[in-house]
Amino acid sequence: MNKSLRILIAFNEPPISEDVRQRTPLYVSYEEGLQGSLKEMQPSGLAEISVVEEMEAVNNALKQNGYETFVLGIADDAMAFIRSLMDFRPDLIFNLVESFRDEAIHEIHMAGLYELLGFPYTGSPPLALGIALNKWRAKEILSFHHIPTPKFVLVNPHEDTFGLGDHWDLPFPVIVKPASEDASTGIDEHAVVFSMEQLLERVAYVHTKFRQPALVEEYIDGRELNVAIVGNKEPIVLPISEIDFSEMPEHHPRIVTYASKWIAESEAYQKEKPLCPAPLSPEVERRVKSIALKAYRVIGCRDYARVDIRMNSDGDIFVIEVNPNPDISRDAGFMRSARVYGWSFEETVNRIVELAWERSQRK
User: Is the pTM of this model over 0.85?
Assistant: First the structure.
């Protein structure tokens, strides 16, 4: 592997004040004051803070591996981002961008931009990112390939939701999510509903708050498993991680919510416990890994991704989501699985770089 590579780390920069923006270059080397500028940023969301922490950790790991790195944050000015990118002209982009102008859909467009400009980059291509973000499309593709996923109904904002009860065939309870968000955005303790009245109220909430269709899914009561995968031609399925809900209070559904993922002061965050490796029989582990790997491939993931799975009390397995751009910060579930496999954080980051670079050299 060529350790003389110039790697640019692209990430969605949290909003900062105009004063700081005027004083801070769009890209700076770590030694040239990145830490100082980040301290003055005013993040608009906790998930965005995580992206900054992820970027810092990846930057440190790449430097320890001997690469020359620069970081480039995109806030709300695409042209400034492009100009800085063209000025630096990296050999490879480590892509950590999850949104632009607070819109998750632009994650797809950023990867497309790298493609158009001819820069190799880590992670999945635009098509896979788009399929995964539009959850109902991903579920249609999974179903077509006979990969089990919860039954669902997509309710568009313009539909007459008051007529839903006349033709509703999903048994309650169901879970209601925004159809095209990530990072558990829009999922809270009220997302699981038990009646038509609650369903209509929750669908209206999603339509109003997120201005997009509501995905209504069969609720799979049971265990939640996360399967991290690394690789292309011969992907490695890392040890399975489980979210332990056993300490959750009775009033809280056994699901991963925005609060349990990002808000450290919340009861959900404190009560949900990760377990890795998950306590599974060899046969169940084999089935979970096989289904996750098939989902990884049919969605078109590349380099690394995470597949989220629910398993009911009968041992039936359902893919609930494929995340082609998962959080890879040091304390994230993905890296927990990597550590159990035997890789350090630095080794895992280096492996992702190697996979992306090898792909680019085959073209």
Answer: yes
